[in-house]
Description:
By secondary structure, the chain is an alpha+beta fold. It contains 16 helices and 44 strands.
Amino acid sequence: MTDVTTARPVAASTIALPEVWNLRALDGPVPVDIAGRTIPANVPGLVHVALLDAGLIPDPFLDRNETQVTWIGQSAWEYATTFTWQADGQDRHDLVFDGLDTFAEIVLNGHLLGRTRNQHRTYRLRIDEALREGENELVVTFASPVAEADRASLEIGYRPHTYFHPFNAVRKAACNFGWDWGLDAASSGIWKSARLEAWSGARLAATRPVVTVEGTTGVVAVQVEIERADDADYRVVVALEDGRTAQIDLTAGATSGVVELRAADVKLWWPRGFGDQPLYDLVVTLEHEEATLAERTHRIGFRTIDVQLERDDEGTSFRFVVNGEPVWIRGANWIPDDAFITRVTRERLAHRLDQAEFANMNLLRIWGGGYYESDDFYDLCDERGILVWQDFLFACASYAEEEPLWSEVEAEARDNITRIMPHPSLALWNGNNENVWGYEEWGWAKRLQGRTWGLGYYLDLLPRLVAELDPARSYTPASPWSGDPEIFANDPDHGSVHLWELWNRVDYPAYRDIHARFVAEFGWQGPATWSSITHAISDSPLTPESPGMFHHQKATDGNDKLTDGLVAHLPLPDDTEDWHWAMSLNQALAVTVAIEHMRSESPRCMGSVVWQLNDCWPVTSWAAVDGYGRAKPLLYALRHVYTDRLLTVQPRDGGLAAIAVNDAGAPWHGPIVTRRMSYDGTVLAEASFALDIDARGEVTLALPADVAEPTDAASEVIVVESDGVRALWFFAEHRVSSLARAEVVTDARRTASGYDVTVKASNLVRDLALLVDKVDPEAVVDDMLVTLLPGETVTFHVRSDWDGEPERFCAPDVLRTSNQLVADWN
């Protein structure tokens, strides 16, 4: 075809490519029954998913099937399709891939269009010379990602990294090669949408709305870039949904400009718990002589967000400030929600964010070893007021700064900053996960032998790109980060920290010995829910160390760490179901200790981002929601400790204090009553105080000695209550306490939505939980980990379509307590 510029540009058009392509293996250790076969493959999609859909491989999530599919990542693959095209009068025709995973060669009608080496970029390929009228053949071949990563590591030189494969030598999701919670299932495929775009004259190449607020006036400065096929004059018009508009002219040769629109009396967007989330449609239109050539719509929110790292008398702060209001971050880290990312739908993301909201979270951190998330993810966070901390995709490794990586990183960052920055929920760009800390403390320097390791990305390239493309957004070079390259990255007095000595080597009560400014990673392991384990693992007998269970524990010495972290607090059961309950409970107890301590130190500490909300397959891990989307007891613990109003008892100045934290928008007034009680309910000492806390405030009340000091530590508890909020302090660990068998009366009844289960306690019942998934894997209970004093009653509401005897929910394997673990052992 010849490149002919039309006299009058016409509106751009899009041609969808087929949704199902033909897939076949080209070379590698391909099984005989698959070699030479062509199978249908959905696009977007991945090779693993296509093979699963065709019934040609076992489910890698089950038993030890992961080992049976590693050949896929060691093989090369071909996607092929045909499409029909007729001349349309347009000047330009581009083939657009929003994502290719990863080492691809694209050929149209025998013409090589290009090669790719970056999963995280978009690709726009001009095809006018190759396109023909009638049927066109499009072929995309993918080289083995395992082989390409090994080859790249040799070419650019070894750089230290965690785990098995040199993921840091290529631009592909690091965890796709395996992690301490993830499958080693290196994928290939057309993992995002593909299409043909036709246009004339000019097209909108990029539109970036930089949103700020001046008083009650919202200001949008839209950075616009166009790609030209001619030298005509064009106009860019920016319009809010209420009719307010602004425009600029791009005269011959001009390819960029800024359109500023000011809107009086806008409604502010707030994070959840602080206000509403009004969103405005912002339409950017490219025009020529009154004709519309292209249009793009962004949903924006008017707000200011600043992440402040400021030196003070105690070190360096780390706090999120939205519309001038400091926000105590109640967050979690986010990993890819499926080992095969194309299976994650908007509906699934919405359910996961429902669970984050259930746990009273206001921020999710997208960790740097995965992916830049989908547009659906950010849209849902915008709507719900969940702040997003976005890592650039560098994790737990050193990275070469030479070509070809430098240019790939710049192109990837430009693509994704441009795509994500319009979202009001986006609060922070972060350069990497643990790489500065790794260089400082993990022995990388001597292994690098003077080679580059990524600092140029974090201190130069990435902050420059954020300043250019998203100038109203905050940037930090790393997590953890002290705020100063001269200060150790993981210093608790400075900036953000990751706390992994706890879990790896130190028991969880030591969280109270660390006085951090902001904790961006910490956590404790626990198994997946029972129904997920028994679906995924067919071991008989099933034990904590049976082959399938052991395969679903990816952490180094993970089971030993689980045991070491349990036995100081709870007995180690020999029965597998009891072991499962004990480890699930201990995970919740550990994280509760950590977060109550962190919140009690507000405003010195301004955030907790637990590792992690979700999982990508059914595995023993730090997640609160397992790989099949089922809530573990930890999610309920997070709901309790992330509540707006929190009471907690903490060691202070050689004694104990009751700390009230009010993260609500209204003051908290009223009496606060503290009691030391015996396990049989007898009040041994009592004191009352007046509680008077401003919104977003906190107060510390030293407990009098007669309340704070036990007569018999094994059988006494401090109870602190105010306005329906309660805190408990047990003087003794579960295993050395006088906890007796739970004496309860239960009643279970059907309801319109499922079942109500009422439990009345005659004695002290600790950590009462309904493991409802044992009855119905899809059942959900409204609360868990409830401690009842003698004579108290609680009713659990269970959502379930299961049709069975209600009393099943009261069975001892479903209705669990820590009493069961302690009394039976004693």
